[in-house]
Amino acid sequence: MRLTSFTDFALRALMRLAGEPDRSFATSEIAAEFGISRNHLAKVVRDLAEAGFIATQRGAGGGFSLARTPQAITLGEVVRALEGGSALVECFRDDGGDCVLLPRCRLKARLAAAREAFMRELDGTTLAECAYLPRPARHPARTS
Predict the structure, then answer these.
(1) Could you give the CA distance from residue 112 to residue 50 in angstroms, rounded to a whole number?
(2) Contact by Cβ (8 Å): 87, 57
(3) pTM of the model
(4) SS3 content of the chain, % helix, strand, coil (to 5)
(5) How far apart are CA 98 and CA 87, in angstroms?
(6) Cβ 52 vs Cβ 86: under 8 Å
(7) Of residues 105, 40, 111, the one with CA closest to residue 30
(8) CA-CA distance, 131 to 17, in Å (whole number)?
(9) For the chain, how long is the longest CA-to-CA vector?
């Protein structure tokens, strides 16, 4: 299974929010922390807000935060929301693609089962279990 970089960035951002669920973050802050393009992350944030995973607030003191508790969000629902339209392989497309192996293909059912096992694992995992905790503040060494 392979997730798009868009979904990867979304999961990273959500994991970071789950690490401090009562806090609001600026797009630029998370982009800098994870080395992600700010513009690309802004698109991710927009889609996460539209899907109901995060709440956004514009203006001074604005930013984004989790719309629900991290325990109430599964990785499976995030991946489905962001990757739902992507076919695993060509023959999984609604139109069946141009695969010449259909209808006698013996691989499609196994790939479908593997995809379901993958999603089942993600459905059983909450964002809270994958929270990315902030780095501890560095304190200068004390000299006596």
Answers:
(1) 28
(2) no
(3) 0.84
(4) 50, 10, 45
(5) 13
(6) no
(7) 40
(8) 8
(9) 78
Q: How far apart are CA 144 and CA 137, in angstroms?
A: 21
Residue with tokens 């970071």: 16
Pair of tokens at residue 25: 């973050």
Structure tokens at 9: 């960035």
Q: Which tokens belong to 80?
A: 């489905």
What is the mean pLDDT, run by run of 10 residues, along the chain of 144 residues?
A: 91 97 94 94 97 92 93 96 78 74 80 90 97 75 58
Nearest to 38 by CA among 70, 58, 13, 75: 13
Residue 36 and residue 45 in contact, taking contact as beta carbons nearer than 8 Å = no
Provide the residue count of the chain. Answer: 144
